[in-house]
Specification:
The structure holds two protein chains of two kinds. By secondary structure, chain A is an alpha/beta fold. Chain A has six helices and six strands; from the N terminus they run αβαβαβαβαββα. The longest helix of chain A is centred in the middle third of the chain and has 19 residues. Chain B folds into two domains: about 35 residues; about 140 residues, 3-Layer(aba) Sandwich (Glutaredoxin), CATH 3.40.30.10. In chain B, α6 links the parallel β4 and β5. The longest helix of chain B is centred in the first third of the chain and has 26 residues. Classes of the chains: A alpha/beta, B alpha/beta. Chains A and B meet through α1 and α4 of A and α2, α4 and α8 of B.
Chain lengths: ~200, ~210
């Protein structure tokens, strides 16, 4: 009887957790995400970053075009999103929570967040930013240049990148398609994966 | 199990035993529901090859009056040109087909831009040649839209044909029209069917239209 009871408990738990937790995403045909351990390409972040966002990214003194390698933060959470992706729209409050969590946890200086609007024009990215009051920098990638360089991934896609002092290129330490389970669990994963 | 043993069961054990059938039922129903509802992306039809960018000849031009129309919408109503004339600008967004990737990415973007259309004193209407029930299922699975979605299904492609944006395979082009308060066409973008037009350009065009 005891055995039966435990089998039933386990069966119920297994079925409860099974469907969960594949996060929503708009998948992309021909996607080849960069794996953990891969060097992340030194992509262009354009020239439209505001002074506040340049300060946040630690590149306040840099004018004009910015590249990822200009950043010196040890960890970067790079979200590939699209204004047109309903999953990204639904995820927007959660990424804002993630940003707030990192700040309140004392990680604002070491873990930076950055959004890449795959196929989005500057105006489309601005619409997304204003609609959801996104606090961290969002960069337009209208011709899909960054999107192509980082594996034509579906959206939202989360790359967590890390580099040690003196290194130029970032290395992928987490590579994940779809919405986060929760900002709390994702923040914990990021901090655990960062060297 | 003996009678004695069952008497010895603690309160926790009894609660667990009572709750178990319920847990199993809930567990099963969640699993089944998840299987029955494939993701929106999984439901989309993936075409093997890209289509010819544009495959029709426009029958109207900027400055022409918009032909009158009266089409059924997925909420059970109708949209008519006369509903907007004299009051608001009208943006018509034609898409080729429900349940296809580019189209399924276009309107969810417009769905977060309602304030921009409102600020320009404009209403948006989405149109395809799909039948109303198909459009309804597609838009519902998309999560719903704030603007009306109208069907140009019967007579097939009636409005699309009069505008000159009906392709030989029977679908509309991916096209945008802005009609001003007087019913005059002020902007036309017959877009490459394989790519999504920049919403920024449409909003800029909308803002540039003054009386």
């Amino acid at each position: 009887m005891k055995t039966t009871m435990w089998v039933l408990v386990l069966a119920a738990l297994a079925m409860w957790s099974a469907p969960a937790w594949a996060g929503g995403a708009s998948e992309a045909a021909g996607s080849e995400p960069l794996p953990v351990g891969a060097a992340f390409p030194d992509v262009s972040l354009g020239m439209d970053l505001s002074p506040e966002h340049r300060t946040y990214l630690g590149i306040a003194k840099k004018d004009g075009p910015v590249r990822l390698a200009d950043m010196t933060a040890p960890v970067v959470i790079l979200e590939v999103f699209s204004m047109y992706c309903p999953h990204c729209q639904r995820e927007a409050p959660a990424v804002n929570n993630l940003y707030a969590l990192l700040a309140s946890g004392g990680h604002a200086d070491t873990v930076k967040m950055l959004g890449i609007g795959a196929g989005n024009s500057a105006m489309e990215v601005e619409l997304f930013r204003a609609k959801f009051d996104i606090r961290f920098p969002l960069v337009a990638d209208q011709n899909f240049a960054v999107h192509d360089a980082c594996g034509k991934v579906g959206t939202p896609y989360f790359y967590v990148l890390a580099k040690k002092p003196g290194e130029t290129a970032y290395t992928v330490v987490l590579s994940r398609l779809g919405r986060m389970d929760s900002p709390e669990s994702f923040a914990a994963d990021v901090l655990a994966a960062a060297p | 199990m003996t009678h004695l043993a069952s008497r010895r069961r603690g309160p926790l054990c009894r609660i667990l035993l009572t709750a178990l059938p319920l847990l199993v039922v809930i567990g099963f129903s969640t699993a089944v529901r998840a299987e029955e509802a494939p993701g929106f992306t999984d439901s989309l039809f993936q075409s093997a090859k890209a289509s010819k960018a544009v495959d029709s000849v426009l029958a109207v031009k900027v400055g022409d009056p918009m032909p009158d129309f009266d089409l059924p919408t997925i909420d059970g109503g109708r949209v008519r040109l006369s509903d907007y004339k004299g009051g608001k600008k009208l943006v018509l967004s034609f898409i080729p087909a429900a349940w296809t990737p580019v189209c399924s990415g276009q309107w969810p973007g417009y769905n977060i831009a309602r304030e921009l259309f409102n600020a320009a004193n404009a209403e948006l209407v989405g149109i395809s040649v799909d039948n109303t029930p198909s459009q309804h299922a597609w838009v519902t699975q998309m999560g719903g839209l704030w603007f009306p979605v109208a069907s140009d299904f019967w007579p097939h492609g009636g409005l699309s044909g009069r505008l000159g944006i009906l392709r030989p395979e029977g679908v509309a082009e991916r096209a945008l029209f802005i009609v001003d308060e007087k019913g005059v066409i002020r902007y036309i973008d017959v877009h490459d069917i394989n790519t999504r037009p920049d919403l920024g350009e449409l909003i800029t065009a909308l803002r540039a239209i003054k009386d």
